[in-house]
Design goal:
The structure holds two protein chains of two kinds. Chain A is an alpha+beta fold. In chain A, about 25% of the residues lie in helices and about 25% in strands. Chain B is α+β, with helices and mostly antiparallel strands. In chain B, α2 packs across α5 and α3 packs across α5. In chain B, about 55% of the residues are buried. Classes of the chains: A alpha+beta, B alpha+beta. Chains A and B meet through α1 and α17 of A and α1, α2, α3, α4 and α5 of B.
């Protein structure tokens, strides 16, 4: 455990060798700054046709008829396809990642506004859009279910009548922890606090919308699909299972991806439509959704209505946490989470605290809203879990009259308790929480901030200080209990060292901006001593990379990063044998010196990894039993998740005249274990913090009572700009993961998980003079204004 | 209809539909795919290019309206092989992650520096406030633009330029020569 305050990482080894971990500029940047990124919409193929999708204008309706004749006659149109036509091929429905089904094109009913109803293929995108206007659909409009609380009422309209025997809108029930033991602890506790909390529906809204270019070659029988996917291999397997195209005849290419944040994990109807269109027309077909389509139809996030309860002693010892959740899953259960975890990893709602009992009961329902549920950098619902626990701990601090930092420090799991099994069964691998919390408080000048707040309150100014401390569970996951539709969550990695000592690494994960081409080159460089500039990183092409489940849930470094380190060690082991032959000593007499093997006690005798690479491919003799070449492949199955943690402190000022919240400062101290590239880590944290500001203060996908989506453009769904966010203050501690080969834990979603409760806690703290104990996100001026006047109310 | 304009110093003439947007003209007709399209409502700014030296959102400009005018895109930002200081700054200060908003951000940043060579952090934030980045949280974009401003000021003062210059070190918060692998 080392604690470092300043933003400077030290060399991993104090040998000044320019390989391995540390701040290295990104290898991918030269193409991006020249405008030469290769995004899906940049793909151009001869004879390319364009696809546009007709979407439902209403949330719930029976389709009576569809007339496509005028659209078919429109100039430039090559095909118009409806659900009925897909049904003839058995393609009208597709499986979701949660073993539900979702309509590719609606056949019987539309179940949310924006649902796919028909598509047009035309010579250019404008002609395709023109023709959409000419499709005549007759709807019999039904009552929609917009409010999850309404979904289970006996007279609620049944949304999923496509499911045999379905007579209600129940999606699933789930529970974790010990109900009776928790009830017993609550019964004897000095203090019990309960609070209703809403985590509203939000949307990841990556700057690049979703899209695909499908090119089916009827002669080869091969489908090439350029697609905005975070999980190209998983998608390939699913296309094989759904469309019946043999898996070796499908090549999914995920080129540069313009942000994902979970939005690009599911398979969307548009991808399937593009594939069908290419098969039907015999031409390559491009589908790129616009922003309206992205916001109204693709994977949303959150939408949890929660009641949190916390039991404690009078002196502030937290005893138990209990929660009841109503989860809105939209019209189809499209949650992208390991099969045995229908609520994702919400089970970590016990947070970073050593408690006696915990229990969660959850009911999930169908509503007339877009499907999705796990997205927006949520680490499989840990955003919701951390928000719940960190908000309810603040409510307890308020009830006890204790400082929220002091309350947290008093209840942290202690370092000697790791590995720590929580009351909901999660085994936290390592952690040392107090130094992280203390560092954040020191950076913030916590005591001074509290003094400043007191002075300001005396003057009638509204200043708030909010704390959140989180523990994440990332790097899914051990294949014994984690799979997505039967595919184990392990990841492959292949490393080839070329004769001249340059190398190529092939990954199963797929960057959406995380800088894999740099980070993974550094991981391999650290292990094998080849400079990262001499290592090319390939990813995102299923024909050229090993199988694995892709990038989401902060799993790239915990899973694929481990694979990269281990495959490099495997290559190094072979290099050692070759080196022993070259130096004519036994392998036991060699020591590794980051880039070369030298003879123990005779440092003048050594060979570099580059020399060894040439020998491995050369004409000279190799040691007995050693094959030529210098390459290896592995598939890494993590033994456990990794558990990064962090302490966040937010300072807000609220204008009492307008109720506008201004985030003045944000201090984030993250512990993601071993740090590979601190520049990239800082960038990941910054981005997540901005997400948190958006969710806490601005973003919500709202619906009116008719099921109209009120957040379907960036004029209505507000994302933070440079004016809404402060200059971030970041720090770190390092508690390596004991089971990860290099001790790394993953950091991609930490800040998105940890920042919303810090901001909400700060706003509620600022509003203390008004007697406000809780206010739900998004804390827009009008909602804060209402809270200041005693009218705090849930957003849904 | 026929439209003629100068794009990145090259005059081009093409037959187009009157309704064609400038962003689609650049991307689909000229193949300049560095300019992106992200929202259709002028909110995101991934489509920012210059029209006669001023940043505009090319999703809200008809190609026909650019007729007779000068357009510059990200592909025309570097001078041959030499990157513009703004491009260098974005690389040095991690001003980009997925790279989708980056061309528009850089065009706005370059235009800002053209009229204000020494902008404050607040002025930079104001300048890019019509554009959205989902990856960086903006702080590194601000640093990138400052890096470019300092770098250009140094060049103008004919100070010997190396990445070890104190100014570059000030911007590189790792506190060591920017670009070094450590």
């Amino acid at each position: 455990m080392t604690t470092v305050h300043e933003r400077v990482d030290t060399f991993h080894d104090n040998d000044q060798k320019p390989v391995g971990y540390g701040r290295m500029l990104r290898k991918e940047d030269p193409r991006f700054v020249r405008g030469r990124g290769r995004f899906v919409d940049d793909v151009r193929l001869p004879g390319l046709l364009h696809l546009a999708i007709l979407r439902s204008p209403v949330a719930h309706a029976r389709i009576l008829s569809i007339d496509t004749s005028a659209a078919e006659a429109s100039p430039g149109v090559k095909a118009v396809v409806t659900g009925a036509m897909l049904a003839e091929q058995g393609l009208a429905w597709m499986p979701t990642l949660s073993n539900d089904v979702q309509a590719v094109l609606a056949t019987d009913k539309v179940r949310f506004q924006g649902q796919e109803v028909a598509f047009v293929v035309a010579e250019d995108p404008y002609a395709a859009r023109d023709a959409l206007e000419l499709i005549d659909v007759e709807y019999d409009v039904l009552d929609p279910v917009v409010d999850a609380r309404r979904a289970l009422e006996p007279d609620a309209p049944v949304i999923r009548d496509d499911l045999e025997g379905k007579t209600d809108n129940h999606c699933f029930d789930w529970e974790t922890g010990d109900e009776a033991a928790t009830a017993a602890v609550f019964a004897r506790a000095d203090v019990v606090v309960s609070q209703d909390l809403v985590y509203p529906r939000v949307h990841p809204a990556p700057m690049e919308t979703c899209g695909a270019v499908a090119d089916f070659d009827a002669v080869e029988g091969k489908l090439r699909l350029w697609s905005t996917t975070q999980a190209p291999h998983a998608h390939r397997t699913l296309y094989a299972l759904v469309a019946g195209i043999p898996e070796h005849k499908i090549q999914v290419i995920s080129p540069d991806i313009g942000g994902g944040f979970g939005n690009k994990v599911p398979i969307y109807p548009g991808y399937v439509c593009a594939i069908v269109a290419s098969i039907v027309t015999g031409k390559p077909v491009k589908w790129m959704e616009d922003r309206f389509e992205n916001l109204i139809s693709t994977g949303f996030a959150r939408d949890y209505i929660m009641r949190g309860e916390i039991a404690a002693t009078r002196d502030g010892r937290i005893l138990a946490i209990r929660t009841n959740v109503l989860a809105d899953h939209g019209a189809f259960n499209g949650t992208a989470a390991p099969v045995k975890y229908p609520a994702g990893f919400f089970g970590v709602f016990t947070g970073s605290y050593d408690i006696e009992a915990a229990y969660c009961k959850m009911t999930a329902v169908f509503t007339n809203k877009a499907p999705g549920g796990v997205a927006y950098a949520c680490s499989f619902r840990i955003t919701e879990a951390v928000y719940l626990v960190e908000r309810i701990v603040d409510c307890l601090a308020d009830e006890l009259g204790m400082d929220p930092a002091e309350l947290r420090l008093k209840n942290f799991i202690r370092p000697e308790q790791f590995p720590y099994t929580t009351k909901t069964g999660w085994v936290y691998d390592s952690g040392d929480y107090e130094p992280t919390m203390r560092l954040a408080m020191e950076m913030a000048g916590y005591a001074d901030l509290r003094r400043e707040q007191q002075e300001k309150r005396a003057r009638g100014e509204l200043m708030g200080i909010g704390i959140a401390f989180f523990t994440e569970a990332v790097g899914a996951g051990p294949r014994k209990n984690m799979d997505i539709l039967g595919l184990g969550m392990a990841d492959g990695c292949e490393l080839r060292v070329h004769p001249t000592g340059k190398a190529v690494v092939r990954l199963s994960v797929q960057s959406q901006g995380q800088g894999h081409e740099t980070t993974f080159a550094q991981i391999v460089a650290e292990e094998i001593g080849i400079p990262p500039d001499d290592i090319d990183v390939l990813h995102g092409d299923t024909d050229n990379t090993p199988f694995g489940l892709g990038t989401y849930g902060s799993r790239s470094t915990p899973v694929s990063g481990a694979a990269a380190a281990l495959v490099a060690r495997k290559v190094r082991d072979k290099a050692r044998i070759i080196a022993s032959g070259m130096l004519e000593v036994s392998v036991a007499d060699l020591e590794w010196d980051k880039g070369s093997f030298r003879v123990k006690g005779d440092p003048g005798k050594s060979v570099t990894i580059q020399d060894i690479a040439m020998r491995a491919h050369g004409a000279g003799d190799l040691p007995e039993g050693v094959e030529g070449g210098l390459e290896a492949q592995i598939c890494y199955n993590p033994s456990n998740l990794t558990y990064p943690h962090g302490a966040y402190i937010c300072v807000v000022d609220i204008d009492p005249g307008t109720a506008q919240v201004k985030v003045r400062r944000f201090i984030a101290v993250d512990d993601c274990g071993t740090r590979i590239n601190p520049m990239i880590i800082e960038g990941q944290v910054h981005g997540g913090l901005a997400d948190g500001v958006g969710m806490a203060l601005m973003e919500m996908i709202a619906f009116d009572e008719d099921g109209n989506c009120l957040g379907a453009s960036l004029m209505d769904y507000l994302l933070p700009t440079a004016l809404e966010v402060p200059d971030w203050e970041t720090g770190f501690t390092v508690t390596p993961s004991p089971h990860h080969p290099i001790g790394a834990k993953g950091v991609g979603e930490s800040a998105t998980v940890g920042s919303p409760p810090a901001i909400v806690n700060a706003v509620v703290d600022a509003l203390e003079p008004f007697g406000v104990r809780h206010a739900d996100m998004p804390l827009t001026p009008s909602r804060v204004w209402d809270a200041m006047r005693g009218n705090a109310r849930p957003p849904i | 209809m026929q439209v003629t304009m100068t794009v990145n110093d090259v005059e081009v003439t093409r037959e187009i539909e009157g309704r064609l947007l400038l962003v689609h003209f650049l991307r689909d007709v000229l193949g300049l795919t560095g300019t992106h399209s992200g929202c259709d409502t002028s909110n995101c700014g991934t489509c920012v290019v210059w029209l006669d030296g001023e940043p505009v959102k090319s999703c809200t400009v008809l190609a026909a309206m650019a007729g007779g005018h000068q357009v510059r895109t990200v592909e025309g930002l570097a001078k041959g092989a030499e990157l513009d200081p703004v491009q260098q700054g974005f690389m040095q200060c991690h001003g980009l992650q997925c790279g989708f908003c980056t061309p528009g951000m850089m065009m706005t940043a370059r235009a800002l520096l053209n009229r204000n060579p020494d902008p404050t952090e607040a002025e930079i934030r104001e300048a890019i406030s019509g554009q959205i980045c989902r990856c960086t949280g903006y702080a590194t974009i601000v640093r990138s633009v400052r890096w470019a401003a300092v770098h250009e000021a140094n060049a103008a003062a004919a100070v010997t330029e190396t990445t070890e210059s104190p100014e570059a070190g000030e911007i590189d918060n790792a506190g060591r020569p920017a670009g070094s692998v450590v």
